[in-house]
Design brief:
The structure holds 2 protein chains of 2 kinds. By secondary structure, chain A is an all-alpha fold. Helix content of chain A is 75%, strand content 0%. Chain A has one domain: ABC transporter involved in vitamin B12 uptake, BtuC. Chain B is α/β, with parallel strands linked by helices. Chain B folds into 2 domains: 1-76 and 157-227, P-loop containing nucleotide triphosphate hydrolases (Rossmann fold), CATH 3.40.50.300; 83-156, no CATH class. Helix content of chain B is 33%, strand content 30%. In chain B, the strands form 3 sheets. Chain B has a 6-stranded mixed sheet with strand order 6-7-8-3-9-10, with helices on both faces. In chain B, α4 runs antiparallel to α5. Chain B is globular. Classes of the chains: A mainly alpha, B alpha/beta.
């Protein structure tokens, strides 16, 4: 069938692109390092610094770009399918802000010094609470406005509580550090961050992928999906838990990186024929491509300024979101 | 296999929507579910399809619906709601293919030859081949209705519960659909329950009529027994005229009854 071949072709293309960008992400930076020739041919004191840069700095950063971009794209695609709404996205719905809040509380309460996993777990807890709130407040409504407003309200509440935490902090330097951290970045991340987040991101991705068939059936509405043998509750739990675990873990190490889950599925949807289930694998790959590209762009274009990744994705994403709203006529409503 | 409701109650908030509804479907027939607006037709359909949980007992083959695994239930009962909801820009073939969902409860088993065959047959029955690659939203109301019915047929179930499937169809397609349902009953031994507002269609094509009024079953039986002047008059508040076409009665509302 044409659609399946197109899906396979697009997935392969995006996978190759991800590999290429991963390689570039290792090679590009203040100094050009060719990872292949370094690993294969050269050894000795002259390349020791290159080795350290490559393995300690760039490799974890590239790995995190792939996994975090992937989970953000994937969760965007799943949330859009679940809520049958093209404007759903973990960042827009307050998931990222709530995860940040969880992380900030963990840092300030000193939990992170006691127990390394406190950071991802408490980010995850924040994410979980926000998704549950969202389901509670807007889950039954089919009105897009209710959903967006609920997301805004949750984001504001999480933002206010984060500010409160910062406000109460006695150490201004720590507060500044947290503010920068919250802007979202992959700079100076190590393999500790990789080992903290990647297993949880993979777990979240498995839960999210398990909803694919149900999301397809949900295209015909909840009642029909139910009559086609879909467990709606189970699907919702998988999507909510998967998003909270995956995005929570991602936010815990990178800070809030927004709009990836909005832009990526939206761009890919017409290419894979609109079936929500088909959108999942390509959105994961597309998210990885998007974040790798953005992270490389940050390094190349503004090497001196330490521009934050989350700032760049928001600068691309917010106008995109505006454009979406502009073109979102009632008649085009999916 | 027998689908049976025993003393079913349904309440939404304070409002009692269905009370003490008992009904049984045990042989191939085309059943018309009629009744005024708000009589509870759609709710009864959803309960019988297992889409809504209820008080009382609905059983399929002696097992309560809630205890039957959802995909298995979906291999026996297909449900077509009144609303023609399709999110995203799915094309018609993709929509019909969704009818095969119950046969693939796992994540990784892809479509097999029987699926392709069922999809093809369903599309042929509903005559939707011509626009199978078109996006659903670009079709006319009648074409959309046919695509969604093809989805139900692709599900290949013994029971079909269709909520006002003739809504928005022109007379030719209304009659075509009722004839098709009749064919399924005689050729494939299906049990088909359709809710209808059109009394003429119901009387002309159905083997059996269930008349629902204010959440209770007012009458259940042959067209001639159920759709009497007095019965229709008291439930709908309209007078009726009757024609005999072939062996069958055709009943159509004529005027409001003066109270």
């Amino acid at each position: 069938m044409g659609a399946r071949r197109r899906l396979l072709g697009l997935s392969l293309g995006l996978a190759v692109l991800t590999a290429l960008l991963f390689y570039l992400s290792l090679a590009l930076g203040q100094v050009w390092i060719d990872p292949l020739s370094l690993w294969l041919f050269e050894t000795g004191p002259s390349t020791a610094a290159d080795h350290i840069i490559l393995t300690e700095i760039r490799t974890p950063r590239a790995i995190l770009s792939v996994f975090i971009g992937g989970i953000l794209g994937l969760s965007g695609a799943v949330l859009q399918g679940l809520l049958r709404n093209p404007l759903a996205e973990p960042g827009l719905l307050g998931v990222s802000a709530s995860a940040s809040l969880g992380a900030v509380i963990a840092i300030y309460s000193g939990l992170t010094t006691l127990f390394a996993y406190a950071l991802p777990f408490s980010a995850l807890g924040g994410a979980l609470i926000s998704v549950m709130l969202l389901r509670l407040l807007a889950g039954r409504s089919t009105n897009i406005l209710v959903l967006i407003l609920t997301g805004i309200a949750i984001t504001s509440l999480a933002g206010a509580l984060t500010s409160l935490t910062l406000n109460l902090s006695s150490n201004p330097f720590a507060a500044l550090e947290i503010v920068f951290w919250m802007m979202g970045s992959l700079t100076d991340r190590s393999f500790v961050h990789v080992s903290l987040s990647v297993p949880l991101i993979i777990l979240g991705a498995i839960l999210l992928f398990s909803t694919a068939r149900a999301l397809d059936a949900l295209s015909l509405g909840q009642d029909v999906a139910h009559s086609l043998g879909i467990h709606l509750r189970r699907t919702q739990i998988m999507a909510v838990l998967g998003t909270a675990i995956g995005v929570g873990a991602a936010t815990a190490v990178s800070g809030a990186i927004g709009f990836v889950g909005l832009i990526v599925p939206h761009l890919l949807r017409p290419l894979v024929g609109n079936k929500p289930g088909h959108l999942l694998p390509v959105s994961a790959l597309g998210g990885a491509v998007f974040l790798l590209t953005a992270d490389i762009a940050v390094r190349i274009l503004f090497p001196a300024n330490d521009l934050k990744l989350g700032v760049v994705t928001a600068l691309i994403g917010a106008p995109f979101f505006l454009w979406l709203l502009f073109t979102f006529h009632r008649g085009d409503k999916p | 296999m027998i689908l049976e409701a025993r003393s079913v109650l349904f309440q939404r908030g304070e409002k009692q929507i269905l009370q003490d509804v008992s009904v049984q479907f045990d042989r191939p027939e085309l059943i018309g579910l009629i009744g005024p607006n708000g009589a509870g037709k759609s709710t009864l359909m959803k309960l019988l399809a297992g889409v809504l949980p209820c008080d009382g007992l609905i059983t399929l083959g002696g097992r309560a619906l809630q205890t039957i695994p959802a995909p298995l239930l979906a291999q026996h009962i297909a449900y077509l709601p009144q609303e023609r909801t399709v999110h995203w820009a799915l094309n018609c073939q993709e929509i019909v293919a969704l009818g095969r969902t119950p046969y693939h409860p796992g994540l990784f088993r892809g479509p097999v030859r029987e699926d392709d065959q069922a999809i093809e047959t369903a599309m042929a029955y509903m005559d939707v081949h011509a626009f199978k690659d078109r996006v659903f939203k670009t079709l006319s109301g009648g074409e959309q209705a046919r695509v969604l019915i093809a989805r139900v047929l692709a599900q290949e179930t013994a029971f079909i519960l269709a909520d006002e499937p003739t809504n928005g169809l022109d007379p030719a397609h209304q009659i075509g659909l009722m004839q098709l349902f009749r064919r399924f009953v005689t050729d494939q031994q299906k049990i088909i329950l359709v809710s209808l507002h059109d009394l003429a269609l119901a009387s002309r094509w159905c083997d059996r009529i269930i008349l629902l009024n204010k959440g209770s079953i007012a009458a259940d039986g042959d067209v001639a027994d159920v759709m009497t002047k007095t019965q229709i008059g008291s439930v709908y508040g309209v007078s009726t005229a009757q024609l005999i076409i072939g062996e069958r009665p055709l009943i159509t509302p004529v005027d409001l009854l003066k109270q």
